[in-house]
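Please decode residue identities from the backbone states below.
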């Protein structure tokens, strides 16, 4: 059965071929729900999803996990942009733990309306590219009044040191054959005693 179309009778062969090709386009699966899911979206489409969600900072050198976190947190960061929480979430998206110090928290107090960031980096180390990327991320998430004074880096390296221990306890018990150490016997022994005494007198005649 020929495909139905709305082309006029004088349509060219090219127009008819194009019409027949596009009538089958609805058979091509387009998983929209998957493409808009940061966890399921194919990695090659993540930059387009980031563009659709207006991700402010994006680096092609980021790992796949960092890219997915950036897309996943984009809506939350836009809702809270200009707050301390937005800055923290934006940097944590890249997999780093930070502590923000406002100017009034410094000892002595720093210049008004400035802040610094203590950042803990792992064995990935510190590079100029990292500082540049972090600076862009922070400047996109912070408010306009506050100014980033700089980063203070603390390097943390974690490793595993497997250790094992064993504890064994027992009792050594020796059982000897049963023997009698002390034997007590009770018996009765009748004893009779008789004493006979006599006196012999001899009378001599005159």
């Amino acid at each position: 059965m020929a495909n139905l179309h709305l082309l006029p009778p004088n349509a060219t062969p090219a127009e008819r071929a194009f019409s027949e090709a596009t009538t089958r386009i609805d058979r091509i699966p387009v998983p929209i729900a998957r493409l808009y899911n940061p966890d399921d979206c194919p990695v090659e489409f993540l930059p387009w999803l980031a563009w659709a969600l207006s991700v402010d900072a994006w680096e092609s050198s980021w790992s796949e996990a960092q890219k997915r976190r950036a897309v996943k947190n984009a809506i939350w960061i836009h809702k809270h942009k200009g707050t301390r929480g937005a800055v923290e979430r934006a940097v944590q998206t890249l997999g780093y733990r930070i502590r923000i110090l406002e100017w009034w928290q410094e000892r002595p107090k720093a210049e008004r309306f400035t802040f610094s960031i203590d950042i803990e980096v792992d064995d990935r180390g510190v590079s100029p590219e990292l500082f540049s990327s972090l600076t862009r991320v922070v400047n996109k998430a912070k408010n306009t009044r506050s100014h980033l004074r700089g980063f203070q880096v603390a390097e943390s390296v974690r490793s595993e040191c497997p250790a094992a221990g064993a504890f064994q306890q027992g009792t050594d018990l020796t059982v000897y054959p049963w023997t009698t150490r002390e034997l007590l016997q009770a018996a009765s022994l009748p004893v009779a005693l008789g004493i006979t005494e006599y006196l012999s007198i001899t009378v001599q005649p005159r």
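Observation: Strands lie at 97-102, 114-121, 147-155.
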